[in-house]
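Researcher: Go.
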Amino acid sequence: MPVAWITGGARRIGKGLALRLAERGYDIAFTYNTSSEEARATKEQIESLNRTCIMMQCDVTDSAALSNVLTLFSTGLGLASVVISNAGVFPEPRALHETTNELVEDTLRVNTLPLLTIARTYQVLCQQHNHEGRLISIGSLGAEEIWKDRIAYNVSKSALQTLAHALARSMAPNITVNTVAPGAIAQPQEITENDSSLINPTRIPMQRHGTIDDVFDAVWFFATASPYITGQTITVDGGYRLVR
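Model: Structure:
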């Protein structure tokens, strides 16, 4: 069976991607940080689809721990044909005078640098097994747009997109690296405070917020498309950037 690894797979977009990949026949390994109850529930849902699932607690800012977990995934479940770097944070808005260097650095440690750790570890594992792979980064429309008082987030996501491009060149020809950049994605089953900041759907050409299925369609494309497609970004925003 094909295998997928996902960071931050216990909740929200990560959970949705894990379940949909399981529905398509993938065995799943995912990390979580503090959402242990949600992680167990997600694991049970995946297993109810007759798929094998491994979950491991991991703080993705700890590069040694993250690399070790990916190696354990490979040992316990098998080498992934698809790896999704999804874990991230969306800090509260901060005015410039409140935006400290530490806040930006902490956001980069969660949103950006784990992709580099994943890439290094995955490349080594693929080389050891003479394996071709696909690495997919979950970015954000915030990599391209500048949002008021979201300096830390905008910087982290724009850096993430540039890092994905650089990795696509470094990891070719055996591993593709692509980015899915969601815009306003509604997640009514797991609402958080951040959902209150979603833009009004009347401002979106498609007249609605996106869904997990919309994001998954872009992920599935990169997971199954020609390996000649690398270093690319699909923005899942209902055309919002066209009217900005």
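Model: The domain at 3-188+210-237 is CATH 3.40.50.720 (Rossmann fold).
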